[in-house]
Specification:
By secondary structure, this protein is α/β, with parallel strands linked by helices. The protein is built from 13 helices and 15 strands. Helix 5 links the parallel strand 5 and strand 6.
Length: about 400
């Protein structure tokens, strides 16, 4: 793999994965790995789903790519399904290629409509690999450190927001729980105060559902755990089950504004039919197989078992999560390899793939929504074996 520019902060640990099925990966020696990372949280309904393969095969024999001046009715049909999930009656969608792009597109829409110099977000948010949202530069973004505030003894949300220049802010970009992979959930009262001030000043609420959407948290979208009515929602990752497709969806208010003044943004694969067809099939599979209900059922058992391990093994500091989006944080070790690193390596040796958040003592557990109870039990049993061996 010397001819590849690899992902910074992510060690290449297996270089010969040759096939995949459901939650399982196989290397060239036919060793099986159970994927509790879902391919960076993308394979929401499991690897190599036969219904996804079928729609891909059928569509590539018809048309996969369109252009600026022609399209296919299947794209409209998929947009209707997504807008229905969001309850965005008379809203609009655009299909793009990555979550990062969907977020950047949503931010540009908010900046154009509001015509204000700043956007608001939390300091622990992650919004992608490029663009204004990834940089969060001070000339474009105002960031609130809600975690530091909530750890303090005096909690007055209005005091926290006193210095925020809401009159200069065009939109609030909210990531409902991923917290740059660390899985933390801002309090409802804080969000209520922020959104009230944003709307009072004619700003927009954008929700980043790239990680938390498409059933990952036990609801269709992470914002549904809060009493929030967003104006713009961005999706990616699990929407394509491994295929690079994303969506930016806007409500009627925003759609009407864009009809009056269209956003000047175009790229070659915008609103391509193949990505839209795959996204539509992912949504239908989740509905048909009742995977959100399955996610809740599996996550309840998984949380209970993880909490039992926490009670029995003091090296586990905290377990945080919703649905099948879980962070397992360990206590720190001075001058030695972290517990998270040791546990991740041992899990890999024994056939389980989890992610360690770069530079942290945190493991992410994000199996596909199709994960079986037997796989979860095996994972817990192996994890306990490893914890017993810890120094």
């Amino acid at each position: 793999m010397k001819n590849l520019l690899w992902y910074p902060g992510h060690e290449l640990v297996i270089d010969d994965i040759v096939k995949a099925y459901k939650c399982y990966l196989f290397d060239s020696n036919d060793k099986k790995y159970i994927d509790f990372e879902s391919g960076v949280w993308c394979t929401s309904i499991g690897h190599n789903h036969p219904r996804i393969n079928k729609v891909i095969e059928e569509q590539i024999h018809k048309i996969t790519h369109t252009g600026y001046c022609y399209s296919n009715n299947l794209v409209k049909e998929t947009a209707d399904e997504i807008l229905s999930l969001l309850r965005f009656e008379y809203g609009m969608c655009t299909f793009l290629c990555s979550g990062s792009e969907a977020i950047e597109y949503g931010v540009r829409i908010a900046q154009q409509i509001s015509n204000k110099p700043l956007m608001l977000t939390f300091t622990d948010s992650y919004f992608g690999a490029y663009g204004s949202a990834s940089k969060k530069s001070q000339d474009e973004w105002y960031c609130i450190d809600w975690i530091k505030y909530c750890e303090s003894e005096r909690k007055n949300y209005y005091t926290l927001l006193d210095d925020v220049p809401f009159e200069r802010i065009g939109g609030f970009l909210f990531e409902p729980g991923s917290s740059s992979g660390l899985v933390r959930f801002p309090p409802q009262e804080l969000l209520d105060n922020i959104i009230e001030k944003i709307h009072t000043n004619n700003g927009l609420v954008i929700v980043n559902e790239v990680t938390t959407g498409i059933g990952r948290t036990g609801e269709w979208f992470g914002f549904q755990h809060y009493k929030i009515k967003p104006d713009i929602v961005t999706m990616g990752k699990g929407l394509g089950n491994g295929y690079p497709v994303s969506v930016t969806a806007v409500n009627k208010k925003v759609a009407d504004a864009l009809k009056r003044e269209p956003i000047k943004y175009a790229q070659s694969h915008q609103n391509d039919v193949l990505g839209a067809v795959i996204a539509r099939e992912v949504i239908r599979i989740i509905k048909d197989e009742k995977l959100i209900e399955h996610c809740r059922f599996i996550s309840n058992g998984l949380f209970n078992q993880l909490n039992e391990l926490k009670c029995n093994y003091s090296i586990i500091k905290e377990i945080r999560g919703r649905g099948l989006m879980i962070a397992l944080e360990f206590i720190d070790r001075k001058d030695s390899e972290s517990y998270a690193s040791i546990v991740r390596k041992e899990l890999l040796k024994r056939g389980f793939i989890v992610a360690q958040r770069y530079g942290t003592n945190v493991l992410r557990i994000d199996p596909a929504l199709t994960v079986k109870e037997s796989d979860v039990k095996e994972f817990i049993d192996v994890l306990e074996e490893i914890l017993k061996e810890m120094p």
